[in-house]
């Protein structure tokens, strides 16, 4: 699958006071132990979900796309296999259901594929984080640096309210620039660790 992770999800919680820029201030709410945490049992056995192999097999690596030197993880083959697509969504739903998540924020464009399905299944609203000039009405913007340029994310003013817990869904982690921009856009501070799926 290349060096990049195929998806990343961050659980955040909105703070109680609004910020000056018109959207809620938020702080990280970490609910899982870091991956480096030691197991409690001396001989812990890792149980691997068998669905993960099917998901991994369905992701195609495209070398040098969108430009030379980038290994692009294409999820299109996964989307063409309904059972595998369902498995991918179900794994997220199983992990985050019952955690009091109020909103799922999906980063354009592939966050729009998984985000709404996860939001519906856990009973949360969906917040689209879009590229510039795609949302009507008043928006908040955050510019960020990519490994091959710069870009910007926007969301509607008032999409998130103080005290709400937000799950951010993105498709891959390369430099972390897009995810960091989403966290800043939602008015959050960077958590001590991120939940990353490979």
From TrEMBL:
- One biological-process term from Gene Ontology? purine ribonucleoside salvage
Entry's family note: Belongs to the purine/pyrimidine phosphoribosyltransferase family.
Q: Where in the cell is it found?
A: Cytoplasm
Summarize the subunit comment.
Answer: Homodimer.
Gene3D superfamilies the UniProt entry points to: 3.40.50.2020
What keyword terms does UniProt attach to this protein? Answer: Cytoplasm, Glycosyltransferase, Purine salvage, Transferase
Q: Which InterPro entries match?
A: Ade_phspho_trans, Adenine_PRTase, PRTase-like, PRTase_dom
The answer to whether keyword Lipid metabolism applies is no
Pfam families, per the entry: Pribosyltran
GO CC annotation: cytosol
Database matches in PANTHER family? ADENINE PHOSPHORIBOSYLTRANSFERASE (PTHR11776), ADENINE PHOSPHORIBOSYLTRANSFERASE 5 (PTHR11776:SF22)
The catalysed reaction is: AMP + diphosphate = 5-phospho-alpha-D-ribose 1-diphosphate + adenine
Alphabetized SUPFAM superfamilies for the sequence: PRTase-like (SSF53271)
Name of the protein: adenine phosphoribosyltransferase
Q: Give one GO molecular function term.
A: adenine phosphoribosyltransferase activity
Does the keyword Secreted belong to this entry?
no
Q: What domain of life does the native source organism fall in? A: Eukaryota
Pathway(s) it belongs to: Purine metabolism; AMP biosynthesis via salvage pathway; AMP from adenine: step 1/1
Q: Which residues form the Phosphoribosyltransferase domain?
A: 90-191
Residues in a coiled coil are none
**Top EC class per UniProt?**
transferase
What EC number(s) has UniProt assigned to this enzyme?
2.4.2.7
Q: Report the HAMAP family cross-referenced here.
A: Aden_phosphoribosyltr
């Amino acid at each position: 699958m290349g060096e990049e992770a195929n998806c990343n999800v961050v659980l955040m919680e909105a703070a109680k006071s609004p910020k000056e820029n018109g959207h809620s201030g938020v702080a990280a709410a970490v609910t899982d132990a870091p991956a480096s945490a030691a197991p409690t049992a001396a001989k812990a056995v890792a149980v691997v979900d068998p669905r993960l192999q099917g998901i991994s097999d369905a992701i195609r690596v495209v070398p040098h796309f969108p430009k030379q030197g980038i290994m692009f993880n294409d999820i299109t083959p996964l989307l063409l296999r309904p059972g595998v697509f369902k498995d991918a969504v179900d794994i997220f739903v199983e992990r985050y259901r019952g955690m009091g998540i109020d909103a799922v924020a999906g980063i354009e464009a592939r966050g729009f594929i998984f985000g709404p399905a996860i939001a519906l299944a856990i009973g949360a609203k969906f917040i689209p984080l879009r590229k510039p000039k795609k949302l009507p009405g008043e928006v908040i913007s955050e510019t960020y640096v990519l490994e091959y340029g710069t870009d910007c994310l926007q969301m509607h003013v008032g999409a998130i309210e103080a005290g709400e817990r937000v799950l951010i869904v993105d498709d891959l982690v390369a430099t972390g620039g897009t995810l960091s921009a989403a966290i800043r856009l939602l008015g959050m501070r960077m958590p001590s660790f991120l939940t990353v799926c490979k």
